[in-house]
Design a protein that fits this description.
single chain, 81% helix, mainly alpha, 303 residues, globular
Length: 303
């Protein structure tokens, strides 16, 4: 009992650290994109992420597992890496490039709703009325944020940016669905995905932007994203879920993230947070909470 309580406290610690780190990345994206193109930011951040994940693997004593990798593991990594990080972050970074961070971040946070929609054709799942209501509530929030509260006017600052932010949720949801069939150790799998995506990212960067000198501020931003968004935060979250005796409570902490992000966006990026952003975010999170509860209730009925 004492051990369980100790592990649960450690789980909360890792989860809160993760939430804190994830809450800063929207600001890091926006600040870094002042100096780098999306493909450049992805390439430099991915290089750093590969180094960080390799260090974690070696630190955990799992280096021998890298030597046991087979041809199918590398082939799987090519496919996963093309989807995430390559395509996912290219689309997401371009959305951040076109939109204020206070718009891009909450819209991207609706990926769980997108996953529910995609599960209908891909996983042959059914959704109930409560899930349909959750989807509607969340997308009303997206509309409020995207139109600055002028919902009836349907005026968007950047329709392309909004479309890309929504498309990023589709890519991430597809990656999540395919990852459920992935039997590789999670950190090793992520490391391989990033390694295999580097030629794609580097080739795309050279083809579209060429190789150019970049400011140190851009490289520092990419390093921050590589260390935390694409590396340590993921490892911390896995550790929190592993230690927790109640993963639902840990998972609920993620709802703090978008609200905390607004604080960082205001003070670090300098954006004036609009009332419509806060109202829209409440709609999005309310939809996500309702969707999550509906999914758990259905799981309980089936068991």
């Amino acid at each position: 009992m004492v051990t369980e309580l100790k592990n649960q406290r450690r789980a909360y610690g890792f989860a809160l650290l993760t939430v804190g780190l994830w809450s800063t990345v929207a600001s890091a994206f926006k600040l870094s994109l002042r100096y780098l193109q999306p493909a450049e930011l992805l390439f430099y951040a991915s290089v750093v992420s590969c180094g960080v994940l390799l260090a974690v693997i070696l630190g955990q004593g799992k280096g021998r597992e890298l030597r046991r990798l087979q041809r199918q593991d590398w082939l799987a990594s090519l496919g996963f890496g093309a989807l995430n990080p390559f395509l996912y972050y290219l689309v997401l970074f371009k959305a951040y490039d076109l939109l204020p961070a206070q718009q891009a971040q909450p819209i991207n946070h609706t990926w769980a709703i997108t996953l529910t929609l995609l599960s209908i054709p891909l996983l042959k799942q059914r959704i109930d009325r409560r899930q349909i209501l959750a989807i509607a509530i969340s997308y009303v929030g997206v509309l409020i944020i995207s139109t600055h509260g002028q919902v009836l006017s349907l005026h968007f600052d950047s329709p392309t940016g909004v479309g890309l932010a929504l498309f990023s949720t589709v890519i991430w949801s597809l990656y999540w669905v395919f990852s459920t069939r992935d039997r590789r150790e999670p950190v090793i799998g992520l490391f391989l995905n990033f390694c295999c995506s580097l030629p794609l990212t580097g080739g795309y960067m050279v083809l579209v932007h060429g190789v150019r000198p970049v400011e140190i501020a851009g490289l520092l931003g990419a390093a921050y994203i590589g260390v935390f968004e694409m590396g340590i935060a993921y490892v911390f979250w896995l550790q929190a879920m592993k230690l927790s005796t109640d993963t639902a409570r840990i998972a609920n902490l993620i709802f703090i993230c978008p609200f905390l992000s607004l604080i960082f966006i205001h003070f670090l990026v300098g954006e004036q947070i609009l009332p419509a952003t806060f109202i829209g975010l409440i709609f999005i999170v309310a939809g996500l909470v309702l969707q999550g509860r509906s999914g758990r209730d259905r799981g309980g009925e089936q068991s």
